Amino acid sequence: MNKKKIFCIGMTKTGTTSLMKALRILGYKVANVYTKANYKKFDAIVGDQLCTIPINFLKTKHPNDLFILTYRTSVEIWWDSIYNFARQENKVNDETVKRIRKLIYGYDMPEDFNKNDFINIYISRFNQGMNLFNGTDNFLNICFENGEGWTELCRFLKKDIPNIDFPHSNKRK
Fold first, then answer.
1. CB atoms closer than 10 angstroms to residue 16
2. Which among 18, 70, 125, 130 could disulfide-bond with 14, CB atoms 3.0 to 4.6 Å apart, if both were Cys?
3. Around 47, how many Cα atoms within 13 Å sit in the side-chain half-sphere?
4. Could you give phi then psi for residue 45, rounded to 5 degrees?
5. Burial classification of residue 12, based on how many CB atoms lie within 10 Å of its CB (0-12 exposed, 13-18 middle, 19 or more buried)
6. pTM for the full model?
7. What is the per-residue pLDDT for 76?
8. Can you say whether the dihedral through the CA atoms of 145, 117, 89, 51 is positive or negative?
């Protein structure tokens, strides 16, 4: 197993759940946003709480670890996804979800959101990741909507491609 820790620095609704499932298939022990455990015991950390930590801080604290930036094909597609996700009944009143939203976006959402603020935060996070890491060998930017999946991920992690379909989670019906 690779001794480097893997950090997903993509925003909510950019394929983070798909990435989490893929990493588990590859044999990694993955902590997500709701894991209540010592993160040092995990190989990978994927989840919304990472969005509250500036990427440059993560890079400074973990210069030799691996970073994966998941993203959507457009900010409008991302916006539609986050908006619909936020309006799901089980997400509207979940206190943990509301707390994380407030930290990431500055809004409790969905009651008081501002589309432009959300989009600006998404673009800023994406640009920060690209500017800090692009061209380095410990960084992968990946968009599952573009058909990227096992080939790119396994090449980056130096793992064999499993003989199963890439896990695409939370697709809108």
1. 24
2. 70
3. 14
4. -125, 120
5. buried
6. 0.86
7. 93
8. positive
